Amino acid sequence: MVLLVVGEGAGYDGFGHIHVFIHPPIPVMANLKPNRPGTVAFSKAIQIGAILATLAGLVYLTNRDFWNTAIKRIRGNTAMEMNSVSAADSTDKMAMANRQVRSEAKIGINIGGIADWATQWPFVDLFKTSREWIPQREGADWGKGEPLQLTPEGWVASLAPGQFAETIMMIDTPHYPSGKYTLLYEGEGKIVLRNAEIASESPGRMIVDVKADGSGVFLQIRETNPSNPIRNIRFIMPGFEKTYQTQPFHPLFLERLSKFQALRFMDWGGTNNSKVVNWADRTTPSSARQSNNGVALEYMIQLANTLKIDPWFTIPAKASDDYVRQFAAMVRDRVDPSLTIYIEYSNEVWNTIFDQFGYALEQGKARNLGAGDEYLGVLRFYSERSVEVFKIVREVFGANADRRIIRVLSGQAVNPWTGEQILSWKDAYKQADAYAIAPYFDGADLDGDGNSDLNDPKAADKVLSMTPDQAINNILQEIPTEIKSIFDKNYAMATQKFGLPLYAYEGGPHLTAYQFPEDKIEPITNLFAEVNRHPRMREVYRQYLNQWKQSGGGLFNQFVDVAKPSKWGFWGAMEYQNQDPKQAPKYQGLLDFIDANPPR
After folding, report:
1. CB of 413 within 8 A of CB of 389?
2. Distance from C-alpha of 169 to C-alpha of 158, rounded to nearest angstrom
3. How many helices (H) and strands (E) does the chain have?
4. Does domain 126-236 match CATH 1.20.120?
5. Parallel/antiparallel/unpaired status of strands 553-558 and 502-504
6. If you average pLDDT over residues 56-76, what whole number do you get?
7. How far is CA 557 from CA 118, 263, 436, 472, 554, in A?
8. Which CATH homologous superfamily contains domain 106-113+251-596?
């Protein structure tokens, strides 16, 4: 018996590919598109249905979810190379199809990290974004005071004679509201402000005039009563004193995020280099600030619920099983049941620059996972621990797990081999619902050797010889070539081989200048700033995201929503929260795609 399973549209996906799933394999000949070797093409879907039905004798039409999980894209170097599978593999693929994997192309966003120097103000209480307490001493150099005594929540518990504590808010950016701020606090002591004027004062309350000139606001605790220390400091933006407790988020922050279809909380969770192990280690809403150890899970959940947008959570690499269990219980109980919840273990564990890589290296050795290959041990530990985390989460969610949870495994975009190791180790792909990459663009090959792009320090002079338009032309050349190849190779590995939809946990421009020779850093930073601000960047995003969709990509998360441009990168869709959206071409390009691709 020959069984041919053809996806919706009689097997034609609209991009020149026929998708088939055949057992046993049978020879089929078909014409090829001259410019796409190995891709089967027919002009009309009805022809496909007729031809394939004749060949197979049995055609089973399926829905689109099956299309994206169970069937194979035919590619090869000959007229046609059919992908065959065993009966057991066929059963696995059919089972995957029944999981209703989400695979439509849609746009989510990573939310930028909380910092006193950030150009985004998510909270109307600016103290939540303040810097960790800086130990100071009269007569000593700045920041050279002895360590401070803090409460478990992070408030200054006591001060020695001559000692004081200082923190900073909104430093080095003029992009925040001027006006009368309300400073509230509990306890007894003395607070001193710099770069702000106290208009009126009463116990536990000050009205403060703030001018947004980029100099920031410095808050010092000069005295505190150890029996009743100054604590619960709030620095409320103008107009929000009556509402900050019930609605902690700034309305402009909410508005800028409102159209996106997922919120990835990697930076908000302080995921990279996280030291969190136990549930008690995490930030809570009662913590002194939300900037130094990740944002409280309660706030992430409240933001997702407020916006009715699916949350994407990343679990700290060192998190204990108990942490995962308590995390899952809070998410289960508090996230709006109508929302889909994405779960990912850590972030880029394969990436050697992060502490989580070192942790995985140690754990891979301890578990003897690499068989002498330490890097392979890292990938296998990430795979293994991810599955352990997923199992705990599913246990907590119980019967609702399939409906509410999407389990995400991630790998390196330019090296699909990493994903293959992660997904294949102990059949981890069977315990996941999606595979994700970060397919950034950084320009096409400059020297014809395949190793040089706009980020290449050796190409500094060539890069500096470009106008912004020429640099954008270079990026536009990259999208249908190198970027398309990255998309297609990962789709082939994740979706065709393992039956998982392809997501992007991050993406966007990856243009940095810090790595160039010292005398070239500033001019290249300026060039890249012009490129990112150029109106044509909107067209870059249109082509980039359309290519993602055409290559079979699903959820795509921009990195990030708002970020200050610098030599370290131009990551933000917007440069500052109150930027005119019309002057933010990357943001406009994202919204264009969302508007053109409404949810099915």
Report:
1. no
2. 22
3. 16, 22
4. no
5. parallel
6. 31
7. 20, 8, 10, 22, 10
8. Glycosidases (3.20.20.80)
